[in-house]
Amino acid sequence: MGQKGVDILGIDSKKLIVMLNGALSEEWLAYYQYWIGARVMEGPMRSEIEPELLLHADQELAHAVLVVGRIIQLGGIPVLTPEEWMKLGACGYEVPSDPYVEVILNQNLTGERCAIKRYKEIADFTNGKDHATHQMATQILSEELEHEQDIEDWITDIERLKEDIKKIRM
């Protein structure tokens, strides 16, 4: 994006770049959270959930590509080192030291809810001012909302499965 394009945005582009670098850091952490969690996960429905978590990981990577592109268009420099991800990201990373499927899903659910908050903030900040970033943020927000719903559904399914097993044992 040219300088005039940045000038007409009507927002603090430096603040927006900081927000986007935070989002970028979180996307990298989310990608790895999904990817490694899918690989080490154990428990009921693992074979059904694993490919979906890997798909979510791919979507998080695609979000990172979009965010990097927008940072560069705005004249910013994307976060350059993994060491900065934890400093710039608000969502963090939970080590999947307990590989049980529900634990992995709850870790991912926490990350999705944080991402939803991040992209809502970016969408609100850019609404009516920076249409390109707003459109990107709402597109990503929509996908993060879908991820949250997927995870909630899986957790519900596992809870029902556990209840059914208890009934059988009685």
Characterize the structure shown.
This protein is mainly alpha-helical and 170 residues long. Helix content is 78%, strand content 0%. The protein has six helices and no strands. The chain has helices at residues 3-7, 13-40, 46-73, 82-88, 101-126, 131-169. The longest helix has 39 residues, at 131-169. It is elongated.
Q: Order of helices and strands, N to C?
A: HHHHHH
Structural class: mainly alpha
- Profile the largest sheet: none
The total beta strand count reads 0
Approximate helicity band: over 70%
| Helical stretch tally | 6
Q: Could you list the spans in which at least 5 consecutive residues all have pLDDT below 50?
A: none
Oligomer: single chain
Rg, nearest Å? 18 Å
The end-to-end span amounts to: 66 Å
In round numbers, the mean pLDDT is: 93
Into which percentage range does the β-strand content fall?
Answer: under 5%
**Shape call:** elongated
Compose a concise summary of this entry.
The chain is mostly helical and 170 residues long.
Which characteristics define this entry?
170 residues; mainly alpha; elongated
Strands, helices and their partners?
Layout lengths: L2 H5 L5 H28 L5 H28 L8 H7 L12 H26 L4 H39 L1
Helix pairs in contact: 2-3, 2-4, 2-5, 3-6, 5-6
